[in-house]
Amino acid sequence: MKKYIDTGKKDTRSGFGDGLTELGKKNKNVVALCADLTGSLKMDEFKENHPERFFQIGIAEANMIGIAAGMTIGGKIPFTGTFANFSTGRVYDQIRQSVAYSGKNVKICASHAGITLGEDGATHQILEDLGLMKMLPGMTVINTCDYNQTKAATIAIADYEGPVYLRFGRPKVANFTPADQNFQIGKAVQLQEGTDVTIIATGHLVWEALQAAETLNEHGITADVINIHTIKPLDDEAILKSVKKTGCVVTAEEHNFLGGLGESVARVLSTQHPAPQEFVATNDTFGESGTPEQLMDKYGLNASAIVNSVKKVIARK
Amino acid sequence: MADYKALEDLVIQVRRDILRQVHKVNSGHPGGSLGCTEFFVALYNELMERDENFKMDGIGEDLFFLSNGHISPVFYSVLARAGYFPVEELNTFRLLNSRLQGHPTTHEGLPGIRIASGSLGQGISVSIGAALTKKLNKDKHIVYTLCGDGELQEGQNWEAIMYAAGNNVDNLIVTVDLNGQQIDGSTKNVLPLGNLKAKFEAFGWDVMDIEKGNDLKAILTGMKKAKEKTGNGKPVCVLLHTVMGNGVDFMMHTHDWHGKAPNDEQLADALSQNPATLGDY
Q1: Across the interface, do B119 and A97 touch by the CB < 8 Å criterion?
Q2: Which candidate, A61, A282, B82, B242, has a CA 20 to 30 Å from the CA of A289?
Q3: Which residues of B touch A74 (CB under 8 A)?
């Protein structure tokens, strides 16, 4: 099985910040908007390099989304930055009407997604954002797994014409995907080859899936591990190809099982190739305060939870 | 010097278009549309510097955004009669497969529309964005917005109003259709707006009134004055005092016709008060 090396823990939000810095240098149409979280979103360098293209909106997210939509008229490519909670639920109608329905080229970049936001607790830990965003017609939804991938995705979405929701997180996590990767929107990445089970993971759960696959391998179970960074449009082909081989699937995400990646995978399978599926996700609940590791453990969002689900799903084959 | 006779003729024809659109599908919003007819006619035919060939990017021309999208009948009529799309297309208002949706949208590709509106309170933010892009592009043209007075009850407006003044967005003229009415009654009874002039001024805007908001001459004089106020570090607000349902006696001074179509008899009465000038579609 392939070996993946953690080259040093880094936060995915820094991948966004560094990607934005690079974009600032190479694309003069890129503008950045922030709702009073410049440091948290790692947008300081862009702000320093291009003060004329950085817009501090203040604590007014609805206005930020509207301004971003308007800025596209005349050729700018706005990247908005705030926490995932304030990037989606708080401004759903603004995104729906002024961005998605109006077909505007806005990149909604959302940090501190999911439960790994940690100690701030449930008011800030959104576990519903993927569902909210994937339901919007025309919206592309991306959830990257590490620093390198977040940086690559940030750069890639500037070249894509249309609204995008890019989701990343707060904590420092393993950085294991190649620094020079070619990020292709909508294209799944196969990380491990196996025959007994398919593990489809997104975001912070991708590294956990790789750890789970190693443990399973020690017990003689081989897993296809697929990194779905783009939840919409979903790479149906990669999912079907793998599940036709393995006959069962575990999906893993830092999100409510209602509305998340797992449900999107279930739709593909139920209509084209029904197969047993288990969900590693939160169980229709809010989060709470704690360290990211404690929370991932308590809410069953780590490698051992994936291993348990794999055993369960294989028994159902 | 504006050709007032031609503008007056257009106003009357637009009123007919509004009434006939909403009557045909027995739905839509005639009251606010009629109240803003003179403003739209003046804006598109005398005030805006605009490219006859519609381009979404709007570089090198003035832009207009309608925030209170429910007054689409007047917007569609004025756009059609300004040449953005065939006047006959007004026949398709609110019908299945039409580009003339109940509320304006870019989704069906109707020329002249740059943003969807209908869910209220979003237009000023969008206009600020377009105005900021004009500044980045070193484009000296102006961004115009129209919003309803009742619409100002939506909180997002005040985020936008604070931002525009705090960031010197001075290539922006926001006109408030001050008709004092909303769906459930007068703004006074539903949720008082207080002293809007004082409010906008307190936020740092340059504010002026057009007291006769249904008088073409007053609108042109006032809006030209508003234009002169741009470029001086402050966003400009025009409080346009209008009468809802203007031009049709039984629709005036009431909220009853906010979102209700006339029946056959009422249509005939309303049209007789506005005899055709340029020909119906």
Answers
A1: yes
A2: A61
A3: 57-59, 130, 133-134, 136-137, 139
Residue A315 corresponds to which tokens in the numbers above? 């028994």
Is the CB of B155 inside 8 Å of chain A's CB atoms? Answer: yes
Q: Which residues make beta-bridge pairs with B65?
A: B145
Tell me how far apart the alpha carbons of residues A83 and A89 are, in angstroms, rounded to a whole number.
11
**Does residue B278 sit within a domain?**
no
Domain ranges of chain A: 10-173, 189-315
Q: Considering the domain boundaries, does residue B281 fall inside one?
A: no
Q: Which residue of A has its CA nearest to B126?
A: A70
User: Is residue B122, in this structure, part of any structural domain at all?
Assistant: yes
Note whether B125 contacts A98, CB cutoff 8 Å.
yes
Among candidate residues A305, A293, A117, A283, the one with its CA nearest the CA of residue A211: A305
Is residue A54 within 8 A of residue B38, CB to CB? The reply is no
CB count in 10 Å sphere of residue B193: 17
- Assess if CATH 3.40.50.920 describes domain A189-315: yes
In angstroms, the separation between the Cα of residue B162 and the nearest Cα of chain A is 10
* CATH number of the domain encompassing residue B70: 3.40.50.970
What are the chain B neighbours of A68 within 8 Å (beta carbons)? 129
Count up the domains in chain B and report the number: 1
A79 with A53: CB under 8 angstroms? Answer: no
Cα–Cα distance measured from residue A86 to residue A10, given in angstroms and rounded to the nearest whole number: 23
Per-residue pLDDT of chain A (317 residues; tens, 9 = 90+): 999 999 999 999 999 999 999 999 999 999 999 999 999 999 999 999 999 999 999 999 999 999 999 999 999 999 999 999 999 999 999 999 999 999 999 999 999 999 999 999 999 999 999 999 999 999 999 999 999 999 999 999 999 999 999 999 999 999 999 999 999 999 999 999 999 999 999 999 999 999 999 999 999 999 999 999 999 999 999 999 999 999 999 999 999 999 999 999 999 999 999 999 999 999 999 999 999 999 999 999 999 999 999 999 999 99
Which segments of chain A are extended strands (E)? 10-11, 30-34, 54-56, 77-83, 107-111, 140-143, 164-167, 172-173, 189-192, 197-201, 223-227, 230-232, 249-256, 277-282
- The ipTM value here is 0.97
Residues A10-173, CATH architecture: 3-Layer(aba) Sandwich (3.40)
Residues of A noted as catalytic: 61
Give A66's contacts in chain B (Cβ within 8 Å).
Answer: 122-126, 128-129, 156, 160
| Size of chain A in residues | 317
From the list A31, A58, A74, the residue facing B58 with the nearest CB is: A74
Q: Is residue B169 part of a domain?
A: yes
Which of A214, A213, A290 minimizes the C-alpha distance to A246?
A213
The letter for the amino acid at A38 is T
Nearest CA in chain A to B65: A70
Domain that holds residue B179: 4-272
Question: Is residue B181 left, alpha or beta, with left meaning phi > 0 and alpha meaning psi from -120 to 50?
Answer: beta
* Record: contact A69-B125, CB cut-off 8 A: yes
The β-bridge partners of B238 are B175, B208
